[in-house]
Predict the structure.
Amino acid sequence: MEALLGMAFVCGLLVLSQLSPGPDVFFVFRTALAQGFRAGVAVGAGISLGFFIQAAVACSAGAWAMQQGWSRYLLYAAAAWLLYLAWKIFPKRRSVAEVDLAQKEQGSPCRVMLWQGFLCNILNPKCMLFILTLSAGPLQAHAALPWYAPALVVALTLSGLLGWVVWSALLQWQPVQGVYRRNTLLIDAVFAVLLAVFALLIIV
């Protein structure tokens, strides 16, 4: 019972952490605002798939992986991907609001969104460090339970996916959508700059 309560506490922390600044958060929130609930959930599902892989590694050999010399190339790839996302989101000549509205009316390419969400997460090595920090205590406390580590990976992944679904739904609230539509260029520019800042921080 104590093990399950500890797992539930960690999962709750994960859902709350989705409101903290980070590439995954910015990508899901901006997609849900601009292209609707389904697109936001598709990105969140891709992020959750990447999170599952990172959680599995973190709960088994994550500390070892981050200490290897080749891990810096993962950092460079992550920075490059975030810079690409920043460039894609940053307002271009044509109004991004018009483009996103057209995409929303035609139907969001969910497979593409899922793939982009997956890459956004799997190329974010700080996610693994976050999982290591979040899970280290419970894993040490319940090391004698062989089922605990895989159960924790599944629980964290499912709770994270649930969080993305909830946040994507809340972002469809009309007052929130109204604010986005009136300030699309500014909000998209802020999201893009923040993603670029994260990319530069990873490189530095």
Q: What stands out?
A: The two ends are 44 Å apart (CA to CA). Residues 94-107 have pLDDT under 50 and may be disordered. DSSP finds eleven helices and no strands in the chain. Residues 148-170 form the longest helix (23 residues).
